[in-house]
Amino acid sequence: MNTKSTKAEEVKVFLHGAEIKRRMVMEATKGKNIAVFDGLPQDVRPESVNASVEKGGSLISADFEVDSFTEPIISKELKALEERLKKIKREIKAEGSKLGLLSSEEKFLDSNTKVGGKSGFEMKELKELESYYKERKEEISSSRIESEDRMEDLLKEKERVTKEIGSFPSNIVRYAGRISVEFYAESKGEAEVTVSYYVNNAWWRPFHEIRMSELNAPVVLSMKGSIVQNTGEDWTGVKVRLSTGNPVQGNQQPTLYPWYIDIITPQKPVKMESRMMSSLSEECVVSDGVERESIRGLPRPASPAQMIIDEAHTTTEFVLPVPLDVRSSSKPSKVEISEHVLEAELFYYCASKLDTDAFLIAKIEGWESLNLLAGEVSIFQGNEYVGKTHLDPAAMDESMEISLGRDRGIIVTRERGKDMTSRGMIGKNKKALREWVITVRNTRSKDVKMKLLDQVPVSVNNAVAVNPVEISGAEHEKDTGILTWSLDIPSGGSVKKAVKYEVTYPKNSTIYLD
């Protein structure tokens, strides 16, 4: 039996779990040999264990077991925190003892201040004794203040370290597991044995950054990965692959069963358009002087080394170009995956009825070949953070449209027109007229394009009729009532559009018209 200390050399991190590879070079004897890989996490899935003898023998078997008598494996980071906590507790105890001694000495001095008067001391001696008492009391008071301040700092540090230790998953500690590989060697000599196994407590998540230095400049789209592993051992100098696969997901193909349908009472649908114009749902975009979060002086990330993308039949793997150190911790390790410089068509978008702010949109063609994954996107203009959104390639069309944030340089107003409250009667029906005036001003130094949206109501009742009186040349989608203008606005120029519609409905009815 040959047991040697080994470390993880290659790791494939999945969206859930990771596959770890180790290698051992040993001197084999003629006949049967056993190579033991110990110090492994307890949560190794036994069915995932795979072994091979690369040189010097033929594989017989490979088995995984947990040795409950072995010292627990604890990550270096957790171990350092626990050692720090022990030291803090010792220092707190020492400061407590010091405060106790100071208190005892102070009581001793207080109890002996009356000795002089009862013992017949000379006046000179009494004055010297009084001076000593006063000086020593001042020293004790000063030492107590210092010690109490020190104690307060230690207690705060103890609380901080305790919380940090508590942030580690409760299952961070693993009792040592081991894989025993039995193989047969034809002759004595060097043998090379490799094993791989799957563990649950590791994962990665993609996220993105989009950077644009100035208007009409190319857009830099970076995909990055956030890796977390709580296996109980630190990975040092490992080759890493990031896979979109999930080995723990069921691999049995689904079966279709008969689909029975029947007649039901139909309900007339009401068609609506989402407030957002693309598959990217904006979560937070801030750009005014009060709310804006700035990351100034932050350099644009350097292009990562050559990235290899391996597309399997059902998954995509990203092979990171340099070995990594990934600690066993609840804190993520962030890595660069890819970076693309893309030409983008820029335009502004405003759905004035919902929000009169203008959003700068980047329309990107040819994104399909970039192997993008769904995830959060942080957006930067120059070195300034302007917000975040979400990227979902599965929901995109041929072009990818990304909101780069609100632009206060494009001013949009939507005001009531003069015919806002006009009403009338026609027989048994009421007639109401509504008017809105939309004005767009471009205060930028460059001409801009804008996609401006508003709407008129759509009737779902035969007793209610809607007549668009004025739509200022907008493209009118009658099923939804959506009005769309494609505008070219010169620098310093403005455009005005009117939306006026007339609604006829029974006089005893109430309709919301705004």
What's the count of strands? 29
Shape: flat
Cα-atom radius of gyration: 37 Å
Largest sheet: 8 strands, mixed
Structural class: alpha+beta
Low-confidence stretches: 268-305
How much helicity do the residues have? 10-25%
Secondary structure tally, helices: 3
- Percentage of β-strand residues: 35-45%
How many domains make up the 3D coordinates? Answer: 4
Distance between the termini: 83 Å
Mean of residue pLDDT? 79
- Assembly context of the chains: single chain
Outline of this structure?
The protein is of the alpha+beta class. It folds into 4 domains: 101 residues, Jelly Rolls; 81 residues; 207 residues, no CATH class; 96 residues, Immunoglobulin-like (Sandwich).
Describe, in plain words, how this protein is organized in 3D.
The protein has helices at 76-111, 115-119, 123-166, and strands at 2-3, 10-13, 18-28, 31-40, 50-55, 58-66, 177-185, 189-199, 202-212, 219-229, 235-243, 284-285, 308-311, 316-319, 324-326, 329-342, 344-351, 359-365, 375-381, 384-391, 399-406, 410-416, 423-426, 429-442, 448-455, 465-470, 475-477, 482-489, 494-506. It contains 3 helices and 29 strands. The chain starts with a strand and ends in an 8-residue tail after the last strand. α1 packs antiparallel against α3 (123-166). β27 and β28 form a beta hairpin. The protein has 4 domains: 2-74 and 172-199, Jelly Rolls; 77-157; 202-408, no CATH class; 411-506, Immunoglobulin-like (Sandwich), CATH 2.60.40. It is an alpha+beta fold and 514 residues long. Helices cover 17% and strands 43% of the residues. The strands form 5 sheets. Strands 2, 3, 5, 8, 11, 13, 14 and 15 form an 8-stranded mixed sheet that branches. The protein has a 6-stranded mixed sheet with strand order 12-20-19-9-10-16, with no helix packed on it. The chain has a 6-stranded mixed sheet with strand order 21-18-17-25-28-27, with no helix packed on it.
